[in-house]
Design a protein that fits this description.
Spore Coat Polysaccharide Biosynthesis Protein SpsA, Chain A; 2 domains; 7 helices
Length: 237
């Protein structure tokens, strides 16, 4: 089975300039994800999708392929992932006659996600029943049932009404008494290519949850403070 890991790394970060190749724990940030993907027992090919020649050079240094540079229209800070993946799959089909059986979507901003996480997500993807995708999620501590909204008259009411939750006075309940809630953490997603090409979706309709409950495993790097926190975690691992 051909399982393609795609590490999407746009240049021109606004939050931290040069973020994807900024040093973390003695290596460029993107290197952590490249090395995790290459250490995977399931991934058969590791590609970095970037618009930035400097990121491309660093990616190749750590063993990833960069078969093309991402076109500018798919590399703005507002560009969604879907068109980028549609372009990449079309490029591989046209230029290499290569059609992967599954795509593993990885982001360099999740450096603490390991090869073990990647393989576990792929195993879940391959298990029956079949699915359109697997997405990594983590438990939320601020449960959505406990959120309030304030009306124009200044009075509060539950953001999600009882008619939706089926629970009377849900915001007052203990979190452990509410149904478990999860959020997409972006650390690892596994997708069937036809989900992208035919459903025009990065998730599809049949989505399995890969639950990551380690408090540090899905840390997302967005600010300098996140870099400092990641450095501290790495030193204590």
């Amino acid at each position: 089975m051909n399982i393609l890991a795609v590490i999407q790394a746009r240049g021109g970060s606004k939050s931290v300039p040069g973020k994807n190749i900024r040093e973390l724990g003695g290596k460029p940030l993107i290197a952590w994800t490249i090395l995790a993907a290459k250490a995977s027992k399931k991934v058969t090919r590791v590609v970095v999708n970037t618009d930035d020649p400097e990121i491309a050079a660093v990616a190749k240094q750590f063993g990833a392929e960069v078969p093309f540079l991402r076109p500018a229209e798919f590399a703005t800070d507002k560009a969604p992932s879907l068109p980028m993946y549609e372009h990449a799959l079309a490029w591989f089909a046209e230029h290499e006659n290569y059609r992967p059986d599954a795509i593993v979507q990885l982001k360099p901003t999740n450096p603490l996600r390991t090869a073990g996480h990647i393989d576990a997500a792929i195993d879940l993807f391959l298990a029956t029943p079949p699915c359109d995708s697997v997405i990594s999620v983590s438990p939320v501590h601020d449960h959505p049932y406990k959120i309030w909204k304030v009306g124009a008259d200044g009075f509060m009411e539950p953001f999600l009404p009882e008619s939706f939750t089926g629970i009377k006075d849900a915001p007052r309940m203990r979190r452990q008494d509410l149904p478990p809630a999860f959020r997409h953490n972006g650390a690892v997603n596994v997708i069937v290519p036809i989900t992208i090409l035919e459903q025009h979706s990065m998730n599809g309709k049949k989505v399995k949850a890969f639950v990551m409950d380690g408090p540090d495993d899905f840390l997302n790097i967005d600010t300098l403070r996140d870099f400092e926190l990641a450095e501290l975690i790495l030193k204590n691992r």
